[in-house]
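## retry 2 of 3
previous attempt timed out at serialization; input unchanged, resubmitting
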Amino acid sequence: MDDPRYTLIQISDPHIEDPGTRQRYGTDTAEALELALRRLEESTVRPDAVLFTGDLTEDGTPAQYRRFRSVVEPVAARLAVPFAYAMGNHDDRAAMRGVLLGDGSGSTDPVFQVVRVHGLRIVVLDSSVPGRAYGELSPDQLDRLRAELAEPAPDGTVVVLHHPPLPAVLPVAAAIPLRDRAGLGAVLAGSDARIVLAGHTHMTSAGALAGVPVWTPGALASTADALPPAGVGSRLVAAPTVARIDLFADSVIATAVPLDRGLIADFDGEATARTVARLRAELPAEPVGG
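## retry succeeded, writing output
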């Protein structure tokens, strides 16, 4: 069995609120974030990085970022891998810089980050537009991305942003798109970009831009129902997910991981190993050159 060269965990749209507030999403969103990180630590997966694709907070206040940090920081210290944060339309650049990124400049310029994990490059873009729900990438960001991608990374590049550069299937999502996704596609075309990771729509979705896979994992806070019943304009349900992204030498796999689920059965390691051995024994040999 091929082993992935890199495994990334993607968490999107936690929308952390103040404790004891109205709970717009029907639950304390900090508890959903705690569950996601607990599931990660309890698993056998040891990621190379953890990526947050925007809307870290509901209102972008320093207090909400501090609450977010209080949940995330101990886990980041224990895992000892990079944690990267993309700006969403609910986020605030100055507050996120000050509380999460250790930059007290108060700058409201777009947040552009490059994280390197061995031979893998992760570029985090800022598609937020202050005070608006739609997204766009400034010419300066596209120029910086183009310059960064001019020199390929040994194991390729993962591009991270909040607004997915894809069409939308629901009217609400269609009203808050990433504007000029073709501009991003022109920069990515022919580059070493292996996948684009986004959030924003609160739906697990996959597509492609300029031949590069695009993936959104759903959200922690709520999930948009892509098949709402007749007479219902839109519907949000509680079905929190995160994602694991596995990058192999010649392929990439994005997998949605449901968090709020009923357990059907657990199988111990020995039983699982026997099943895997039996199934692998039934596989025909790979053709020469296959």
